[in-house]
Amino acid sequence: MITNEEQLEKNIEQTKSVLRQYLQEKGFRNTPERYTILEEIYRLDHHFNVDDLYLQMLQKKYHVSKATIYNTIEIFLDAGLIRKHQFDEKNSSSSSYEKSYFDKQHDHLVIYKKDSDKEIEEIIEFCDPRIQTIKESIEQVFGVKIDAHSLYLYGTKKD
C-alpha cells in the first residue's frame, strides 16, 4: 500500500514532468527555481498568495525573488498546474492560488469574520453533486458543453 508521502512525491514528479514538457513546447528555459517553486506549491494543503509563498521560501533559505515567483505563477497558470481565485471582493488585486493538476472540481464558501469589513476568516472547499446536475441541465438547455465552472459563496457564521 502506498503512503500519503509516497503519493505526494509521485504527484510532484508527475507535475514536474508536465512542467518540463510545457517549458519545452513553449521554448522557455528549464530553470531549477521553477521546479522548486512548483514543489513548494504542491506540498501545500491550502490556498496561497504570492507573498505567503515568497515568505515560506525565504524561511526555507531558497534564494528566489518575488518577481520570479510572479513570473513563474503565470507559467503555472498557463500550464494548468495551478488555479487562480479572487476571494477578496474588496481588493481585486489580491489573488489566491491553489494547485490544480490532481484536484477534482470543487467550489468555495468564503466566510467573513463577524463585524468586519469583509475580512476573510476561512475558506471552505466543498463539492455538491447537485451542481453537476445543474451544469448538465444548462448544457442541454443552451446546447453547450461546459468545460469548467467557478462558484464562490460568501457569508458569515450564524450565532
TrEMBL record:
It is found in: Cytoplasm. Its cofactor is Mn(2+); Fe(2+). Its main location: cytoplasm. One of its GO terms (biological process) is negative regulation of DNA-templated transcription. GO terms for cellular component: cytosol. Fe cation binds at residues 107, 149. SUPFAM superfamilies: Winged helix' DNA-binding domain. Binds 1 Mn(2+) or Fe(2+) ion per subunit. Keywords: Cytoplasm, DNA-binding, Iron, Metal-binding, Repressor, Transcription, Transcription regulation, Zinc. GO terms for molecular function: DNA-binding transcription factor activity; transcription cis-regulatory region binding; zinc ion binding. Homodimer. This is Ferric uptake regulation protein.
